[in-house]
Amino acid sequence: MQALETTALVAVIGAGAMGAGIAQVAAQAGHPVKLYDNRPGAAAQAVEGIDRQLGKLVEKGKLAAEQRSAIVARLQPVEAIETLADARLVIEAIVENLEVKHGLLRQLEEICAADCILASNTSSLSITTLAASLKHPERVIGMHFFNPAPIMALVEVVSGLATDPALAKALHATSKNWGKQPVYTRSTPGFIVNRVARPFYAESLRLLQEGAADCASLDALLRDAGGFRMGAFELTDLIGHDVNYAVTCSVFDAYYGDFRFQPSLIQKELVDAGRFGRKTGRGFYDYSEGAERPQAAELTSATDVASCVVEGDLGVAQPLVQRLKDAGVPVIQRAGSGLLRVGDAVLALSDGRLASQRAKEDGLRNLVLFDLALDYTKASRLAISWSADTTAEARDQAVALLQRAGLKVTALADLPGLAVLRTVAMLANEAADAVLQGVGSAADIDLAMRAGVNYPRGPLAWAEAIGIGYVLNTLDNLQRSYGEERYRPSLLLRRKHAEGSRFHD
Ligand code: NAI
């Protein structure tokens, strides 16, 4: 089965946010498109909305006026579902309700030709379940777009148990022709993105709950050190806590209460209070008029840095050394186990142990741990934490050193894995488990997280950059620290480390 020819009629059912966006994408790719909604007038309204959006692109010089009219001319709002009989592909984007979607698919079986593809844009329902009891379950497939569909590149092509593999290939190729970045996935809870992204929210929520720092500081760390577009609190405020919490609960329930997906009580409390985020004017942050946005906390030091000592190789954090040299700090290099010394302080990249625990176990006095950064040459902020016996002077010397490298320094309470390292380790862990369970390939999972939720790097490629062994050790330490199932390392990380093999060549 080939990609759909652009002459093939595409029908989109549901003219809400997603349906309208998908109809626009298909029409932009050259297909004639019929748009149907059971609310009278909704389809026509949606086409008018698309026309207005395209008008804005014309004003900005991003689209020719003739293209706009050609796209709109290909979009036909219809008021009767029977008029979809000649469609080659139907994509439904109606209300997220299994019975209603099931009813619609049954109705479509009666209306459409036997070889018409029936695709669902569902973000949480099982394609296997949706296809069950249909006469031709092999032609039912998920085509999961991201919001807003005309802008977000990712399409998860979701196969249920009965889906014809040739159909998945054809829709993958079709999505590519539509300018999208498709990935293959199996119908499992959350598919790729809504599963692998859970720790991004969960670890920040956990850090907040355990008093690591305030929301603004944690958000700033994920942005300025982690390279994420937004921190977890500002992002969930934008998504809506009602929606984000419901997704977490549905994935948690679907995996029979696997603790890795356990929802957060502090997010539940926001939902219970009606603080859904931006849309209600209040979430973790206050969006009412005149409300001040809290700033990230920052430690500063006026102490002079005469020189520092690098013992051994700092691993993924090695670029920090060049940054210090570039800032004119004399660096003395000697053999050792990856430590950075300044004055009385010993700095080390977190390995998932508490600072106080590591200080004791490794016999390190005045230990200051620092966090992972996506790119130590560019990060503008770094988190630190320190052991209980670290003196105020030593801490100040550590801050002064990092400041000299041009970094803002944000303190976290002594919690294992700091903020970015533990978030990235858990994202990689979830991604590895998804590969292990055949939810998607490593390449597709990394692509999905970059194209679907704008991660600066795929979690598995990131784990490789840090070192799979380092990530595994961090997770082992997190699990030991918490004594919780939640942090258990994926067998695939352990296997890859034992084999010395990689996710990507
Ligand atoms: P929406 O509420 O904006 O639009 C749904 C539309 O479907 C409404 O216009 C409604 O009148 C129509 N509709 C409801 N039942 C119908 C029926 N039986 N026949 C015909 N039309 C019907 O919802 P939205 O956000 O566009 O979501 C639609 C689907 O896309 C859901 O399955 C959702 O899970 C999925 N999705 C949503 C995303 C989002 O960020 N909003 C992202 C990816 C998927």
From TrEMBL:
Enzyme Commission number, as recorded: 1.1.1.35
Keyword Endoplasmic reticulum: no
InterPro entries cross-referenced by the UniProt entry: 3-OHacyl-CoA_DH_CS, 3-OHacyl-CoA_DH_NAD-bd, 3-OHacyl-CoA_DH_PaaH, 3HC_DH_C, 3HCDH_RFF, 6-PGluconate_DH-like_C_sf, 6PGD_dom2, NAD(P)-bd_dom_sf
Stretches assigned to the 3-hydroxyacyl-CoA dehydrogenase NAD binding domain: 10-186
EC class of the enzyme, as a word: oxidoreductase
NAD in keyword set: yes
Residue ranges occupied by any 3-hydroxybutyryl-CoA dehydrogenase reduced Rossmann-fold domain in the UniProt entry: 347-416
Domain 3-hydroxyacyl-CoA dehydrogenase C-terminal span(s) in chain numbering: 190-287, 418-499
The protein's name in its UniProt record: 3-hydroxyadipyl-CoA dehydrogenase
Origin species: Pseudomonas knackmussii (strain DSM 6978 / CCUG 54928 / LMG 23759 / B13)
Gene: paaH
